[in-house]
Model the fold of this input.
Amino acid sequence: MGLRVVQWATGGVGVAAINGVLEHPDLELVGCWVHSPAKAGKDVGEIVGTAPLGVTATDSVEEILALPADAVIYAPLLPNPDEVAALLRSGKNVVTPVGWFYPTDNQAAPLRAAALAGNATLHGTGIAPGGISEKFPLLLSSMTTGVTFVRAEEFSDLRSYHAPDVVRHVMGFGDTPERALSGPMQKLLDGGFIQAVRMCVDTIGFNADPQIRTRQEIAVATAPIDSPIGTIAPGQVAGRRFHWEALVGAEVVVRITVNWLMGEENLDPAWDFGPAGQRYEIEVCGNPDFTVSINGFQSDADEQGPETGIVATAAHCVNSIPAVCAAEPGLLNYLDMPLISGRAAPRLR
Done:
């Protein structure tokens, strides 16, 4: 039998993570925590749409803490440090896409103490932040010398993101610009992306200002736009951009940008993705300069099934579990990790 894994929460990432665990030869699903009482007591297979798995979902934190397990994939919508600390103290390694990619000492201290008390390890991972925003730029920067600038940028059509409550009430689409700009999204994103910028700054060795500059921009609809949250009316938010920048003096040396659009038509300003379309783009300037474009992690607006970036986020968590379980207790970031790879499909093993 493989490492015993618990899935915490069964939203999009959680469901994809369960499927990933089922495909991984070294992992065994043994537990599942759910937020909704309606899911509690169900076989996890019923929740994720497979045959019965013989694992019953529970909404009891105490049951999860008492369950013998090697690791927990912690994937709620919003992180709760007290929950993570309790999981670590119970002796369970925690892999999560919702934070702690490169925490400061103040952010890390309580969780490091919990990890050491439980002889366990915490690792933050994912896609952006948690992968393409810092792990990939650092990897690619090994191909140049005298680095002067690093950029990681996302270009995504939010019409493929099938979580309407999140898109409207958290991301602020379909709202007024004033409400969106004062809403929770900037603060929610800051936690992970500021850590991503700092990891790049520290690893490359830029003498950057410790204060990371943050900016956000809004585009509004100029005509009705069909979207997962219904019709976005003229004047309502239909595009958002977020920037995080590290500076040496007045020179930007690291920039991470997120572009989220409800399509490329009827926007003011007239933003679009350019001829390359949806993608993640990584630029490194030095000797030599180069740009890498990564396609395939964004779904088309009319595609059915899970958004591919969500599946990729879950896969990065799943594939990290063996290394995290083998690590020394404490907090583990990419700079401490061995090479992580996917595993062959069951039919090819």
